[in-house]
Design a protein that fits this description.
The complex is a heterodimer of chains A (about 150) and B (about 200).
Chain A lengths: L3 H8 L12 H4 L2 E7 L2 E6 L8 H12 L4 E4 L12 H9 L2 E2 L4 H6 L13 E5 L7 E6 L4 E6 L3
Parallel strand pairs in A: 2-3, 4-7
Antiparallel strand pairs in A: 1-2, 5-6, 6-7
Chain B lengths: L1 H19 L8 H25 L3 H6 L10 H4 L5 H22 L4 H24 L3 H15 L7 H8 L16 H8 L1 H5 L7
Helix pairs in contact in B: 1-2, 2-6, 5-6, 5-7, 5-8
The chains are: A alpha/beta (about 150), B mainly alpha (about 200).
């Protein structure tokens, strides 16, 4: 019989459709995995409500864990604080500045360049190629970069 | 409560549609991206609320007659020139914040919407700071002000007036329709009306 650990391991192999360096588990969108009477039940929390990748993620879970019942939880339980430490490191390596923790963001407006670690960066556009990203520019290494928005 | 939520969803759908009309033609590339992204978010919010209200969100969103929509007249206005477009965004976001705050404790998805709206508010506020001393922008705000009051409930209007520093006037209420709304409805529902029965997306 399939175990919850096996399901988590399988879900770790599903890349985010738009930022494939991180998995759905890294992104923190899998709220729970339960096995009830041999039946897999996965709770999935959307990131941004307008994100076209949501349907894709749900289908990817259903494909990866055949027979799983995927429940989309439309509440406020996901925030960027749910992105794991490993997920943040992977984002940074791929040139996406990971979102600052909400508490930090409320107290400071510091945004660090993912390439050179400088904080001498400026906002170019609050909005970027997907709902979750802003565009910034690093004055130190003169590199534009994408900032994952803190929400 | 359902009436309030339907008004919220219809507002978000229609302003999302109107904002998306700037895709490709906004006066700056940054705003082209911003308006497209904001529109995408707003329509996503509409969908989440329609899903809360009905098992068939598309039917609720697109199968009603134009006169059955509950959107505020502010969001219906068609392709306003830039000063009016920015004035609408700013007024809408302030009004929306007041309305959402009231819903958050009872409707979990409203709290989620609120998180994302924070970025729309920042965008609107940046533009407001830039333009607030411009006579053209001020005139646009004055013109749209009765419409903005129609977004919130009567008991929320004093707060809205205080937030935007304008005197309360008679609101243009929900249930009234701009002349352009029938054409918008025709356009919005076209894909759904044209799809063959049983088509899957």
């Amino acid at each position: 019989m399939v175990t919850a650990e096996q399901v988590w391991a399988a879900l770790e192999e599903i890349p985010d459709p738009e930022i494939p360096v991180v998995s759905l588990v890294d992104l923190g969108v899998i709220r729970s995995v339960e096995i009830r009477d041999g039946h897999v039940h996965v709770e999935f929390t959307p990131t941004f409500l307008g994100c076209p990748a949501l349907e894709f993620m749900k289908r990817a879970i259903e494909d990866k864990v055949p027979g799983a019942d995927v429940e989309v939880v439309q509440d406020d339980s996901w925030s960027t604080d749910k992105i794991t430490a490993g997920g943040r490191a992977k984002l940074r390596e791929a040139g996406f500045a990971p979102p600052a923790p909400r508490l930090v963001q409320l107290q400071s407006q510091v945004h660090r360049c993912p390439y050179c670690d400088s904080t001498d960066t400026r906002l170019e556009n609050l909005f970027g190629p997907t709902p979750c990203r802003s565009l910034r520019y690093c004055a130190s290494c003169r590199q534009p970069f994408e900032q994952f928005k803190t929400i | 409560m359902n009436e309030l939520l339907l008004g919220l969803a219809d507002d978000e759908l229609v302003i999302g549609w109107r904002d998306s009309e700037w895709t490709g033609i906004a006066p700056m590339l940054e705003e082209d991206v911003a308006f497209s992204s904001i529109a995408q978010n707003e329509i996503g919010h509409a969908r989440a609320v329609y899903e809360l209200l009905s098992d068939d969100a598309d039917a609720l969103a697109f199968d009603r007659a134009p006169g059955e929509y509950r959107c505020a007249p502010l969001v219906q206005l068609h392709l306003l020139e830039w000063a009016h477009t920015i004035a609408r965004r700013w007024l809408y976001e302030v009004a929306d914040e007041i309305r959402i705050a009231e819903l958050m404790s009872e409707v979990p998805v409203a709290a989620k919407i609120n998180r994302e709206e924070a970025y729309h508010r920042m965008h609107a506020e940046m533009w407001h700071e830039r333009l607030r001393d411009e006579p053209r922008f001020q005139a646009a705000v004055q013109e749209l002000w009765p419409y903005a009051l129609g977004v919130v409930l009567p008991e929320q209007r004093a707060e809205l007036a205080a937030r935007v520093k304008l005197d309360e006037v008679d609101a243009i209420e929900r249930g009234t329709f701009d002349d352009s709304f029938a054409a918008l409805h025709e356009e919005m529902t076209m894909v759904r009306r044209s799809a063959p029965a049983g088509a899957q997306w």
